[in-house]
Amino acid sequence: MAGNRTFTMIKPDAVSAGNIGNILAMINKAGFKILAMKLTKLSSENAGKFYAVHSSRPFYGELCDYMSSGPIVAAILEKENAIEDFRKLIGATDPINAAEGTIRKLYANSIAENAVHGSDSDENSQMEGSFFFSQFERF
Ligand code: IDP
Ligand code: MG
């Protein structure tokens, strides 16, 4: 249903630090239901496609290298007001500016290695979910 789904990734820094379980627990505790989930890895080509919207930004190369540097967890989440509520749960892009108790405040290393992704709109959530999951992999 429109407005009730978002797409997330637990990024390579958080996976390698052993924080998959902690982050999923926070996601569950905040009331999100997991509709699809997998441990996977982006090739640098696919990282480039996923983040094509940022291709003109100065950090694009660094972002693609980082996002393809190790395994990630990709997931589709469901909750009322999912996009906005999930952005609140993860906190600001730069952990220095993230509110206390948010995922990024607790687990992000830096503005670049910031532990999690969260979609910023219904349209992007649809596109991002479809990037990783076929209709047969969603519940
Ligand atoms: P968001 O993830 O909070 O939506 P965006 O501005 O969409 O932030 O940026 C996408 C991702 O690019 C960020 O999550 C972060 O990993 C990376 N990024 C954003 N700004 C910078 C920067 O100034 N330097 C390095 N990496 C950045
Ligand atoms: Mg964004």
- Biggest beta sheet attributes: 4 strands, antiparallel
What is the radius of gyration computed over CA atoms, rounded to a whole number of angstroms? Answer: 14 Å
Under CATH, the topology is which?
Alpha-Beta Plaits
CATH architecture: 2-Layer Sandwich
> Helix amount, in percent?
25-40%
Poorly predicted tracts of residues: none
Q: Structural class of the secondary structure composition? A: alpha+beta
- Number of helices, counting only DSSP H or I runs of 4 residues or more: 7
- CATH class designation: Alpha Beta
What overall form do the CA principal axes indicate? globular
Average pLDDT level? 97
Distinct small-molecule ligands in the complex: inosine-5'-diphosphate, magnesium ion
| Total E-strand runs | 4
Identify the CATH homologous superfamily.
Answer: Nucleoside diphosphate kinase-like domain
Could you give the order of the helices and strands?
A: EHHEHHEHHEH
Question: How many separate structural domains?
Answer: 1
Percent of residues in beta strands? 15-25%
Distance between the termini: 13 Å
Order the strands across the largest sheet as they lie in space: 2-3-1-4
